[in-house]
Fold this protein.
Amino acid sequence: MSTMIPLLAFLFGTGLVAAVAYALIPSRADAIDSRLQELTLSREEEQKPRFQSLVGVFKRLGERVPRSPKEMGSLRLRLVQAGYRREEALTIFFGMRVAFALLLFAIFATSIFARPNIMVALAAMGLGYVLPGMLLARMAKRRSHRIRLSLADMLDLLVVSVEAGLGLDQALQRVGQELAFAYPELSDELRLINLELRAGKPRAEALRNLADRTGVDDLSSLVTMLIQTDKFGTSVAQALRVYSETLRTKRRQRAEEAAAKTGVKMVFPLVTCIFPAIWVITIGPAAIKFITVLFPMVEKTK
C-alpha cells in the first residue's frame, strides 16, 4: 500500500499536466492562421522597405526631369483615371519613364545581349520613354471598362434606395458601401463624392468631378441627367429608372455590335494561322504526286 501511493500520485500529476497542456494548446486552425499571419507580416516587412526605396528613387529622379505644363495636365488626368490620385504620382511616373528609357539605352548601347549600336540604343530609349505612357493609357482604359460594366448594378441599387425614401446623397453613400466588394473602383469613386459633399462642395461640382475622374461616357451622361433633374426639380427615381433602361439597351447594342465584328476579326487569324495548314493538307499530296510524275517526264525529254 505504501508503494502504491507514490505511483498514484505520479499518475495523477501526469494526467493533470497533460490535461492543462491539452487545454492550452491552440487549435489547428488557430495555429495555421497565426503562422500565416506571421509569414505575411514578415514578408511585408521585407518587401515594404525595398518598394519604398524604389519609389523614392523614382521620385528623386522625377523631380529633376523638365516638365511641360500642357503635358502635366493630361498626364495627371490620365493618372487619376487609372486610379492613382496621390500628389507625388506624377513625379513618380516621370521618374519611372526616364529610368525605363535609360535602362533600355544602357542595355542596347552595351554588349550585354548583342553588338552595341548607338542608333538602336537611341530608338530603344525613345521606345522606353513612350511605353510607360501607353501602359498608363491601357490601365486607365481597363479601369473605365470595369466601371462601365458596373453602372447597371449601381443604377438598380440607386433606384431602389431612392424609391425607399433616401435622398440622393444618402443613396450614393449606401450604394457605395454595398458595391465595395463586387465593384471596388466604382465604390471608391462614390466614396470620394460623399467626402466632397461633406467638405462643402456643391453636388453638381462633385458629380462633374466624378465624370472627369472616370472618363466613362455613360457616367458622364448619368451625371448630366442628375444635374438637370436636380435643377428642374423632377423625380429622381423616375429619371434613374428611365436611364437604367436606356443603359441596358445600350449595353445590348454594344454586345450585338461586338458579335457582328467577330466575323471580320476572325479573318486575320484564319488567313495567317489556319489557312496555310489547310492548304498543306489539301494541296500538299497532290503537289507531291505532281512533282514525282512531272520531273521524270522532264528528264526523259531531255
Remarks:
- The chain has two domains: 45-141, 143-260.
- The first helix runs from residue 4 to 24.
- The chain is about 85% helix and 0% strand.
